[in-house]
Amino acid sequence: MKRVLIVGAGKGGSILLNILYQANRMNIVAVIDVDRDAEGLELARKYGIQIGYNWHEWIDKDIDIIIEATGKEEILDQIVDKRNRKTVVIPGSVAYIISELFNEKEALLERIKLQMNNQHLILNNIRDGMLVVNNQGTIQFMNKSAEQIVGLSKKDVEGKYIQSVIPATRLPKILRNKRKEVNQKLTLENGKQIITTRIPIIDAEQNLIGAFAVFKDITEVVNLAEENTDLKDIKTMLEAIIQSSDEAISVVDENGNGMMINPAYTRITGLKELDVIGKPATVDISEGESMHLKVLQTRRAVRGVRMKVGPGRKDVYVNVAPIIVDGKIKGSVGVLHDVTEIQALTSELKRARQIIRNLEAKYTFRDILGNSVEMKLALEQAKVGARTPATVLLRGESGTGKELFAHAIHNESDRKHNKFIRVNCAAIAESILESELFGYEEGAFSGAKHGGKKGYFEEANNGSIFLDEIGELSLNMQAKLLRVLQEQEIVRVGGTEPISINVRIIAATNVNLEKAIIKKSFREDLYYRLNRLPIYIPKLKDRLSDLPVLVQHMILKINEDYGRNVQSISLEALEKLKNYHWPGNIRELENVIGRAMIYMDMSQEIMEASDLPELQLDKVETGIRPFRPKEGQPLQDAMEKFERSYIYETYKRNNFNKTKTAKDLKISIRNLYYKMEKYKIEKTDMQ
């Protein structure tokens, strides 16, 4: 029996389920609907049929027929795209109409069954063919429509055994098993294809009186479906929509010859209907291969392919999808997008983003990718920090994503609806940094604006300020920042009156602040103010398990920037990336992936190891030399060097697993991160 999957359990899906179940000619595998209260799901449970809520989970389960009964074109397109090539897809609109027709027909037949004595007048005036036999299989009645379909007159067949008139009939079987058969296909001796329903006639005492068949020429059913759905009007409307669309559209038949184009297509390519209709799909291509022909061969849609079209070699992006009817490919439809227009819109969007980039946070914790233990710990600490007003200090090497964390912390806090100001302390000259941070009064210095100017802290009032590279501040600026942290107020340059502010400070640095304190280049009191909630962001080489998801995310992002169609990366290429030491961390990884994609072929979908630029592989692990104290060495210095050596040896013994190392040392993982940062302990350290 054919295995059938019904997608959609509304009214149409329920009717189809009932009909197919009663027919008992197909194996209904499951009924699917996203609405868990759909009436069809309840009916399926009653019949003992499996139910589901996501058709993707069933598409590969050896399905012969998929009936799409949602009535949604996008779902039909998705099913056609995902289904096995041997699976037949029946559109819900046609299936629903036919089910409605047969549902009405069954209701009519039930009424006829109750009014057998007065049936002749009624039956001779219905469009469906009807034939009645007694319990011996002898023909008792045949109406006028049946005469026309079968090609025999009533007087020639009445009184004859049914199989002598219609050899392929199954009415004798109905008489034996007393079960009706609904909507069965049958080919008559005259070659006509009919759809027939066969029903036993049973009296009130459950005695078999006979059986009857109601049948319809399939051509008539199709014509009736077309009339009821106004297919001709819909076709006219569809053509009008295509012609009036601003999207450039071209349609080809199953042989790859042009069928239809619209004015927008002519505007972009410069080609008219005379140049395209009836011509091969390659006629409009100046550079690249025909996506129409590729889709016709593969039966799979393609998206975002870049090529040049028309005599003017217009640069375009192309999306092409197959047109599949009853499992057969009938052509393909393509939509062209002018790259010039897209680039103009992209530039405009970038300008808009540039304007607001210093006023609001763009990223959330959902944008921070990674499942490694180290990254999960950092994320948990950051989420704690977001829920408190405490100052946060983000620590980690350059390129690890400290700014991304700052954005996410602000967006997760109760200040997310206020401003998020970003300041790179190392990028602003010392001479103007104070006025930029705290603002200035009118006349404070030569060139000062009339009326003065607000500083970043005032702009960020009730919001957050992100001070990146805070370890680069001078001692003078550190003192002024300490006052802000202690007093929650600032004084403008050239002013005397303090201004109260309510600002959440998020600081970041890749400098070892503990060493800077020892060298007297960073204030110890400011360190303790900033270090209320330190968050250590792991280096890329400490979270190599996150490489696959990071690379996939970067590929999809760079596809948009460079107009590529890369879908994934090979295992060999991924292994090559894992063997590199990544001194530039995430920023370097994005640079490597971007450089690789620049030189890849436009149609290439998988990044191979050969596409990657040359990387210096990192396979040598030298370790730290065991500590041997020197004579006359200060006690504090000796203790620190011993602690550094002991931590590294434990780290190495645990195969560079930080969680196990912290457990062996009987310290917290956060304390281990602090000490490793303090002593610059790495997996591959210098001798």
Automatic annotation (TrEMBL):
<dbReference type="InterPro" id="IPR003593">
    <property type="entry name" value="AAA+_ATPase"/>
</dbReference>
<dbReference type="Pfam" id="PF00989">
    <property type="entry name" value="PAS"/>
</dbReference>
<dbReference type="Pfam" id="PF00158">
    <property type="entry name" value="Sigma54_activat"/>
</dbReference>
<dbReference type="Pfam" id="PF02954">
    <property type="entry name" value="HTH_8"/>
</dbReference>
<keyword id="KW-0547">Nucleotide-binding</keyword>
<dbReference type="InterPro" id="IPR002197">
    <property type="entry name" value="HTH_Fis"/>
</dbReference>
<dbReference type="InterPro" id="IPR002078">
    <property type="entry name" value="Sigma_54_int"/>
</dbReference>
<dbReference type="InterPro" id="IPR000014">
    <property type="entry name" value="PAS"/>
</dbReference>
<keyword id="KW-0805">Transcription regulation</keyword>
<dbReference type="InterPro" id="IPR025662">
    <property type="entry name" value="Sigma_54_int_dom_ATP-bd_1"/>
</dbReference>
<dbReference type="InterPro" id="IPR009057">
    <property type="entry name" value="Homeodomain-like_sf"/>
</dbReference>
<keyword id="KW-0804">Transcription</keyword>
<keyword id="KW-0238">DNA-binding</keyword>
<feature type="domain" description="PAS">
    <location>
        <begin position="122"/>
        <end position="160"/>
    </location>
</feature>
<dbReference type="Pfam" id="PF13426">
    <property type="entry name" value="PAS_9"/>
</dbReference>
<dbReference type="InterPro" id="IPR058031">
    <property type="entry name" value="AAA_lid_NorR"/>
</dbReference>
<dbReference type="InterPro" id="IPR027417">
    <property type="entry name" value="P-loop_NTPase"/>
</dbReference>
<keyword id="KW-0067">ATP-binding</keyword>
<dbReference type="InterPro" id="IPR025944">
    <property type="entry name" value="Sigma_54_int_dom_CS"/>
</dbReference>
<dbReference type="Pfam" id="PF25601">
    <property type="entry name" value="AAA_lid_14"/>
</dbReference>
<dbReference type="InterPro" id="IPR013767">
    <property type="entry name" value="PAS_fold"/>
</dbReference>
<feature type="domain" description="Sigma-54 factor interaction">
    <location>
        <begin position="368"/>
        <end position="598"/>
    </location>
</feature>
<dbReference type="InterPro" id="IPR025943">
    <property type="entry name" value="Sigma_54_int_dom_ATP-bd_2"/>
</dbReference>
<protein>
    <submittedName>
        <fullName>Sigma 54-interacting transcriptional regulator</fullName>
    </submittedName>
</protein>
<feature type="domain" description="PAS">
    <location>
        <begin position="234"/>
        <end position="305"/>
    </location>
</feature>
<dbReference type="InterPro" id="IPR036291">
    <property type="entry name" value="NAD(P)-bd_dom_sf"/>
</dbReference>
<dbReference type="InterPro" id="IPR035965">
    <property type="entry name" value="PAS-like_dom_sf"/>
</dbReference>
